[in-house]
Specification:
It is a single chain. With 208 residues, the protein is α/β, with parallel strands linked by helices. It has a domain of 142 residues: Rossmann fold, CATH 3.40.50. Helices cover 26% and strands 23% of the residues. It contains 6 helices and 9 strands, in the order H-E-H-E-E-E-E-E-H-E-H-E-H-E-H. Strands 7-8-9 form a 3-stranded parallel beta sheet, with helices on one face. The two termini are 20 Å apart.
């Protein structure tokens, strides 16, 4: 990541890297759990991170309307309305215009990672241990802590996704320290910054 940061801060030195994630539930996906374990061990073996902060996964069911993916750039879901050849009728055998379908699905929800990112960002900024921060995320839930820290020091946002960066993260608030920035990671950035394979005694999981 140092070469990516150097595009904005040529003389900067990365002092501390905190990685916030959640361990995959082995009961839900044993192979993914094994692959993640190898990756986390490789990160530590390579010295790529200084601290890993863990959130939690919660397994539950959710009932939601059946929908299709909307158009870019926001991809807002489009609720599927019953129409021929599949229609909905009531108990009197009459058509129900505008009816939609409900589906109950298994859901695994990650909890705590955004709070952990915000907490580390605020603690480091308020303790005066850094001159600037880089947040690798496109989570709009981080808007408030990012705004508050930008009033005290420079914050760079690195969007790891291909879509547009959340407006609440890219918007520079009134009273912010000069020099705030926001970028998207490119495919080339990601391919240039892979861990070596093998990484110590850890090899890349099959299929990665």
């Amino acid at each position: 990541m140092s070469s990516v940061v150097a595009r904005r801060w040529p003389d900067a030195a990365l002092d501390r890297v905190v990685y916030c994630t959640t361990r995959i539930d082995a009961a839900a996906s044993p192979s993914s759990k094994r692959s993640q374990d190898v990756y986390l061990l490789a990160l530590r073996a390579h010295g790529a991170v200084d601290w890993i902060e863990y959130g939690k996964f919660y397994a539950k069911t959710k009932t939601r309307p059946l929908a299709t993916r909307g158009s870019p750039p926001r991809f807002r879901p489009q609720v599927t309305i019953a129409s021929a050849p599949i229609q909905v009728r009531d108990a009197a055998d009459s058509d129900v215009p505008g009816a939609y379908f409900m589906a109950t699905v298994a859901d695994r929800e990650e909890k705590g990672s955004d709070v952990n990112v915000a907490s580390h960002l605020l603690i480091d900024a308020l303790s005066g241990t850094m001159d600037g921060a880089v947040v690798v995320s496109n989570d709009s839930d981080l808007a408030f802590p990012v705004v508050e820290v930008r009033k005290r020091l420079v914050v760079g946002i690195l969007n790891p996704h291909g879509g547009h960066t959340a407006g609440s993260l890219s918007r520079i608030p009134s009273g912010a320290v000069p020099g705030q920035w926001c970028e998207r990671l490119t495919f080339a950035d990601l391919t240039r910054h892979q861990l070596p394979d093998p990484c110590g005694r850890y090899s890349k999981p099959a299929g990665w």
